[in-house]
Amino acid sequence: MLPDNSFLIQYPHVSRVVRSLFLTAFVAFGVGALMGLFQALHRTNVLRLFDSTDYYTLLTLHGVLLAIVFTIFFLAGVFAWANTRSLDRPPVSKPFTWFWVAAMSLGTTMAGVSILGGLIPASDISADVLFTFYAPLQAHPLFYIGLALFIVGTWLAGIDWFRQFLAWRSENPGERIPLQSFMVLTTMLMWFIATMGVAVEVVVFLIPWSLGLMPAPNPLLTRTLFWFFGHPVVYFWLMPAYLLWYTVLPKISGGRLFSDPLARVVFVLFLLLSTPVGIHHQYVDPGIAEGFKFIAMTNTMFLLLPSLLTAFTVVASIEHGARQRGGTGYFGWLKALPWRDPAFTGMALAGLMFAAGGFSGMVNAGMNINYLVHNTIWVPGHFHLTVGTAVALTFMAGSYWLVPRITGRELYSRPIGLFQVVLWFIGMVFMSAAMHRGGLAGIPRRTAEPQYSQIAFETVAGSVGNLRLQMAFGGVLLFVSALLFLVNVGLTAMNNKPARGLDAALPPALSGPEQSPTILDNLKLWALIAVVLVILAYSLPLYSIVQGAGLYPAGHEASPAVIAPLLEVIA
Amino acid sequence: MHVHDYEKLWLGASLLLIVGFISTIVYGAVGAGVVMVNDEGGQVNPSELGNTTGFDDPGVTKVGPGEYEVHIVAMQFAFRPGTVELPANSTVTFYVTSRDVVHGFQVVGTNANTMVIPGEVSKLTVEFDDPGEYGIVCHEYCGSGHHGMASELLVKEPSNFTMQDDTQTQTGGNGTTNATATATGGESA
Predict the structure, then answer these.
(1) What is the pLDDT of residue B49?
(2) pLDDT of residue B177
(3) B188 touching A, CB under 8 A?
(4) What is the pLDDT of residues A153-165, one digit of tens each?
(5) Residue A511 contacts B, CB cutoff 8 Å
(6) Is A274 helix (H, G, I), strand (E, B) or coil?
(7) Kind of pairing, strands B78-80 and B67-75?
(8) Which of these ranges, B64-73, B138-147, B157-166, has the smallest mean pLDDT?
(9) Active site includes A446?
(10) Is A448 in contact with B122 (Cβ distance < 8 A)?
């Protein structure tokens, strides 16, 4: 039998919500990973099952399913669990919770169907616009409407968690916000601000345009609005991983979080700095003055600070855990850690990979060095370390710990889990290192062909053929790892053995919240400052872009235009 | 607020690292003279490129001793002109725009790299010191034929170089050749 203080017994309804969100996340993960395998084999010329022109449909599916659906559905599950667990009270309204789950799911289905339509030429429906869906490449209206619905669903989720918090606040006036809830709320505030860009892009410009009601919008404007959202979204993926590193990893390591105040400072910094940096994706865009790029660059560099602080706190907490378990010495404590636990090892390897990804990201952030790597395969090499490992591997490792808590079933196999997380790490070392090196040789990203007939890419060491084999090999390992994860979690859900050791409590931090000023918990203040920073960083660039070419400049056409068939359907 | 001593040390070191990074970039801009692609190129009507000076007949123009301008039009799925020939020891200003969707422009193996956005003109100045053959790729996904979009840049010995269209020798240009520093900084393409 499960103990009375386990999450599943206390909150069976929230557990059901989390299970349903995780299910969608894992289905998206499986399909997205399969698309990744196809790409890794296709563009390296190892095995070609599709025509090169269909490559981009698969690539769109890979990007949208993994970067949007898998990550956001999973983090919604983590947040629903963490907010409820740390506030120790359920959300205010069950129908409201199911309403946002339904909105997110319906939006996802619409966008997914419109992408798959690209593989069926007779369908007139396609959305081969990749993850970066700015004009003038046009998708079917179904894609944009689905996307809008999905974003609205995430807003409602945020509102649900805030209502839950306010209900807690009225019962607990004057108390410090519990840490996990604090992390959920600051992250959602950041998300509300960040999604303003994509909401304006999609609702004001792309939907009316794709329906044929309005002319083509200024491409640079939609691009800028996209990146207004397109960079902070990476922190939306990363924050739930940080939440697990700060609150769950210390418990798994056998210790306690080193510092609660510093954890709060880190999340406040992310709220403030995540959004006014998006222009660093546009360092080599025409139409944006150098000064604006410089401002985005300095903000980006300061955004390193919360991650560097996290590195300290997480390692210090793990070390504390190891010493509680009897570890000694300068480095000898490393041996005392629970390396056989896939939840621990997965998160530790994810953190290690994040350090590497952070350094390759600093190269991208370096405005002038970026010339060398902009839009080369270096860039996907970088984000497969960050979102593809720091986030995805933490989510997988976290699942091994969390899924038994929301299903009440014992993890099917720890050895398979351990093998799986290590395999992901090794696969990513091969694939990502080869991608970084290929990028330095100038090989472009997002292309179906392994080489251009008239161009010789010169690598620093090793041949291009060699790099391709490494990429394909790494991609295969990653796919096998993804498959093992899904099988292991699937069998866990069907496992008849009840889970053990499900105490819902997490150990308190060594330095507790009482050691930090209460102003840290003033969410209104931080949200206000965050909005001011965004206005400072974006008002002038947006103004000058609109001054330049206008909102609807003459001479722009959609490509491919899907307006005509749709109007025929309506008529 | 209680902050552990080791944490303070780490915080200080982190800030130092960040300021160090920003300094290297400032040095790159001020010391090495790396200029960002910016809003100098101005705007054009992408449907009217045939009537737009420079883009109506894209290609190489000599604007001064050792100084050239190259106009390039990107479109699904090619660059026009398909091949660009230039002499070594030249300072070259590229003006690149798109007739349809967003494209990319990179001279492979160098740091001549820009986005190409319809309606906007990307302007970048590069120095070519030595003869060589370079590929130019579109590095931004632009549609189902994206992987076929590439062209060539041939940097020739000055003695072997003749302008394909030698009627265009201007001096001074339109005020674009004087102020731009090289995008390549110390190590030229």
Answers:
(1) 95
(2) 32
(3) no
(4) 999 999 999 999 9
(5) yes
(6) coil
(7) antiparallel
(8) B157-166
(9) yes
(10) no
Q: Residue holding tokens 């400032």?
A: B26
Under the banding of pLDDT at 50, 70 and 90, the label for residue B170 is very low
Q: CA of A435: how far to CAs of A56, A136, A350, A378, in Å?
A: 18, 28, 18, 5
Could you report the per-residue pLDDT of A275-288, keeping only the tens digit for each? 999 999 999 999 99
Q: Are A122 and A216 in contact (CB under 8 A)?
A: no
Residue A263 confidence (pLDDT): 96
Residue A189: closest CA among A235, A227, A251: A235
Name the average pLDDT for chain A. Answer: 94
| Site from A51, A370, A452 to mutate, B interface, most B CB atoms within 10 angstroms | A452
Contacts of B4 in chain A (CB under 8 A): 258-259, 511
> Cβ contacts (< 8 Å) between A368 and chain B: which residues?
25, 28-29, 32, 34, 36, 185
Quote the pLDDT of residue A272: 97
With CA atoms as reference, report the closest residue to A148 among A199, A211, A76, A114.
A199
Residue A475 neighbours by CB distance under 10 Å: 26
Catalytic residue among A70, A235, A292, A395: A235
Each residue of A464-486: pLDDT tens digit?
999 999 999 999 999 999 999 99
H or E stretch covering A153: helix A141-171
**3-state SS class at B146:** helix
Instruction: For chain B, say whether A362 makes contact (Cβ under 8 Å).
Output: yes
**Do the Cβ atoms of A285 and B115 come within 8 Å?**
yes
B52 interface with A at CB cutoff 8 Å: no
CB of A338 less than 8 A from some CB of B: no
Dihedral (Cα; A398, A400, A406, A408), 10-degree rounding: -160
The candidate with the shortest Cα–Cα distance to B15, out of A16, A312, A98, is A312
> pLDDT digits over A379-404, tens only?
999 999 999 999 999 999 999 999 99
Query: Model ipTM?
Result: 0.92
- H or E segment and range at residue A39: helix A12-42
Q: b vs e for A197-219, b when ≥16 Cβ sit within 10 Å of the residue's Cβ? A: bbbbbbbebbbebbbbeeebbbb
- Cβ–Cβ gap A368/B101 under 8 Å: no
Q: What is the DSSP string of A211-253?
A: TTSS-PPPHHHHHHHHHHHHTHHHHHHHHHHHHHHHHTHHHHH
Is the separation of the CB atoms in B92 and B69 below 8 Å?
yes
Q: Would you state the structure tokens that stand for residue B176, as one six-digit string?
A: 């674009």
Check if B45 contacts A (Cβ < 8 Å). yes
* Chain B environment of A371 (Cβ under 8 Å): 34, 111-113, 183
The Cα–Cα gap between A35 and A39 comes to 6
Other beta carbons within 10 Å of A461: 7
